[in-house]
Structure formats: C-alpha cells, structure tokens
Amino acid sequence: MSDAMVEEKGLLNHAQAALLLDVSTKRVGELVRLGKLTDFAFLGRKYVSMREIWDRNQQDLKAGRPPRPKGKRITARLKAAFKHDALQVRQGGFQGAYQKKLTAERKQREIERKQRARKKRKAVLKESGRRSYHER
User: Fold this and answer.
1) Largest CA distance in the chain
2) Tens of pLDDT, residues 68-127
3) 76: nearest Cα among 10, 13, 16, 1
4) How far is Cα 122 from Cα 133, in angstroms, rounded to an integer?
5) Do residues 72 and 82 touch, judged by C-beta distance below 8 A?
6) Is the CA virtual torsion 120, 121, 125, 131 positive or negative?
7) Where are the domains positioned within the chain?
C-alpha cells in the first residue's frame, strides 16, 4: 500500500473522495467502474488516487451540481480529513508514505548540499595554501 501511496501522492477511501469531489460515494464507485478513476484494493478496502481526485477537481466539468461555496468546500475537506479508516491510520494517514518520502528526499538534498559546501571549502583552503582549523 505504501508504494501505491507514494506513486499516487496518497490514497483516499470512497467517502473521502466523495467529499472532495462533491459527489456521492456511489458516484465515486461509478467513476471507478467507468474507468475514470483508478481503484486500489488493500485488505478488502477500496481506495482511489489522491492525484486523480486532484486532477478531476481541477477539470472544468459542466455536468452535475454547481460548485459549492468556498466555506462549504473547506468544511467538506476537513470532514474528509477525519474520515480515516484504521488501515489508513496505520500507514500514516492518506498521504503518510508520500510525505515520508518527501521528507527523506529533502533531508538527502540537505546532506548533499552540506557535503558540496564542505568540499568547496576544502578546495579553497587547499588552493590558498592555508590549513583548516581541524588540520592545525
């Protein structure tokens, strides 16, 4: 599940996806059956991709209900955040593995940046003929 969460930037259960798309959970199931959303099944539970939900939300779809006011959209997103099931919580939430990967990559970039800076300082000191504080 964590590999799929990383690739898809998180997984949502159908109730969470329905709240974010402003449709019913049955409609989310229908979108999966129609092939408009990819279905992921883990331990008998069904999930959809956060990336696909985000892309679908950004599309200018004309059919269906008119868009909700901003306040109601924020409320729906907060409700979706609290509708985690036990499997999602064990994985760290709907984006747990994805966020862990981003944090690890950020830390790795920081380490590499520090190593490059250290090498650069050494080269400058060597070029100038001076020794570093630790070499004295």
Assistant:
1) 75
2) 788 888 888 778 777 766 666 666 666 667 777 888 899 999 999 999 999 988 888 888
3) 16
4) 11
5) no
6) negative
7) 2-95, 104-135
Q: How confident is the model at residue 135 (pLDDT cuts 50, 70, 90)?
A: low
Q: Which residues make Cβ contacts (< 8 Å) with residue 7, sequence separation at least 6?
A: none
Compute, in degrees rounded to 10, the torsion defined by CA atoms 13, 50, 34, 44.
-30
H/E element holding 6?
helix 2-7
Q: Virtual CA dihedral for 41, 18, 28, 85, nearest 10 degrees?
A: 20
Per the rule left: phi > 0, alpha: psi between -120 and 50, beta: everything else, 35 is left
Distance CA 114, CA 60 (A): 44
* Size of the chain in residues: 136
Helix (H) or strand (E) holding 68: none
Give the containing element (helix H, strand E) for 92.
none
Q: Pull the structure tokens for residue 35.
A: 């092939």
Within 43-129, residue ranges assigned H as helices are 50-58, 70-81, 86-91, 96-128
